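Propose amino acids for all 46 sites.
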């Protein structure tokens, strides 16, 4: 998965959650960190 794809998925996930913004921002940040870690591990072959 390319970095651009991660950014697009993050934006798409963010859109419907405006009403619960603070909670969802924290949730999405944790999700994005997990996704980025998996991506980096795959690229580096860890």
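Proposal:
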């Amino acid at each position: 998965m390319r970095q651009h794809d991660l950014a697009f998925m993050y934006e798409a996930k963010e859109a419907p959650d405006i009403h619960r913004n603070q909670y969802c921002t924290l949730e999405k940040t944790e999700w994005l960190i997990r996704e980025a870690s998996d991506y980096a591990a795959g690229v580096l072959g860890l």
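The helical segments are 3-14, 21-44. Residues 3-44 form one domain.
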